Amino acid sequence: MDRMSRLRPLAAAILFAAFSGLAGMAHAQKGETVRPEVGKPLQAAQALVKQRKGREALAEVAKAEAVGSRTPYENFLIAQMRGSAATAAGDSDTAIRSFEQVLGSGRVSGREATAMVQAVAVAYYQKKDYASAAKWTQRYFREGGGDPAMRTVLLQSYYLGNDCGSVQKMLASVADADTSRRASEEELQILANCFLRQRDNTGYVNAIEKLVVHYPKKEYWTDLLARVQKKSGFSDRLGVNVYRLRFATNNAGSASDYMEMAQLAMQAGVPAEAKLIMDKGYQGGALGKGDQAERHERLRKLVEKTLEESQKTRAQDEQGAQAAKDGNALVSIGLNYVYEGNAAKGLPLIDAGIKKGGLKRPEDAKLRYGEALLHAGRKDRAVQVLRGVRGTDGTADLARLWVLHARA
Fold this sequence. Notes:
22 helices, mainly alpha
């Protein structure tokens, strides 16, 4: 993303707007006048500036500068007009020199002075002197400037000047999801890139997490999911949980994705979810066609047969689960109920299984419970459960991603 090129039109607009109407012949002190040989070319330059003919305006200013024995007031007006003409001509160096001279004269104040400070800041930005651009933009805000575009100039000046510490400080108050002013997508991208430059993986991930909450795009989720799976100690058994997130965040949808997800759900003992996945694959047109159509159909029949058999013995299995010393079977049966569309029956069973204890993998069960709650539309309760998931094998990381998805 070439942010510099995207800001050039903005910078030019700021410069011209600031000075197209501020090159008048004012600020005279008592007894000060302008000689015709100075005033006439300056008036001509002013007219040319309004027509955005910067080069021609600079030529008129040069005529005034050629007049000898100029008074301080004449020099002030020449500098002011030269700055406006240079702005129209895109001559940043001349605009900076001229407006700094005008500001140093003590003859301008208030909104006009603020506009000049703004123009100097943007002119420095255009010439890629980012440290100076940041300094003058800070002055612009200190002196009461309120143009929101200047916030972008300041942020970009920090970023392009490799001052990532200032980027972080600047966005600290708005990057948090709980603040009233939301950071823009581009601001958060800049923050993420700064952390990436510093090889601060934790900071980078935090910035991407804010992006998926406020601007939930597929590519941000792709990045987060990839990083979670690459973390040391991440367990392969959580592949089915990863696939759930991939489908939820539009990072899956191919025939192989549907097939793999269905098989993983079967292995996890939840044929009801496997059937749900297969049905979606057929309904969406990903399955049932091409040279793999026969394979798709075989898996579909296996899933349906397995689910049908489990439903035949469901009542008996549920009684056994209630009498069991541990809650593993209750969790599994409850999940099948949820993915069959009977959350009112299934969710209490999962909860009861977790509370009974003796689970082979308690954190996995809590993660599954949170996912089931989200599937059933119980977002608040799901977030509560997911925030309680612990574990260093990836369960807690996936639970955190589900919380972010629920908040998006």
